[in-house]
């Protein structure tokens, strides 16, 4: 349980990569990608439907984008349809997901930095502050 102590205020700052409120906000240039995902997420597919409340935490968006990124790398690493790609070929493709080879995920358009392997996004997520306000 969090208790605010006026003598020892604490704030927690974090930057959510997949906060639904930020993804759906009009300031997000890629909000259409999130909205398309959210609409499809709640749609009934052959008797199967995801509960839209699962979008609230951002985990569904991050899982979608991770699987999408992996599948793109796997598809690009396939030489022939009869032979599965090697692990090294798939890893090499991940580092080519930069410049024009972007990922159009539910969290927006992003790239993989070939030097660091970090995600590079077209928009900056907003910092969220939890807890006590800063002292003046």
The helicity comes to: 25-40%
- From the spread of the alpha carbons, the general shape counts as globular
What letter string, H or E per element, gives the SSE order? Answer: EHHHHEEEE
By secondary-structure content and strand pairing, the structural class works out as alpha+beta
Fraction of residues in β-strands:
5-15%
Alpha carbon gyration radius:
19 Å
Protein model, in words:
The chain is an alpha+beta fold. It is 32% helix and 14% strand. The chain has helices at residues 20-24, 31-41, 59-77, 87-94, and strands spanning 11-14, 103-105, 108-112, 119-121, 128-131. It has a three-stranded antiparallel sheet. The protein has a two-stranded antiparallel ribbon with strand order 1-5. A hairpin with a 6-residue loop joins strand 3 (108-112) and strand 4 (119-121). Helix 3 packs across helix 4. The chain is globular and about 65 Å long. The model has no long low-confidence stretch (mean pLDDT 83).
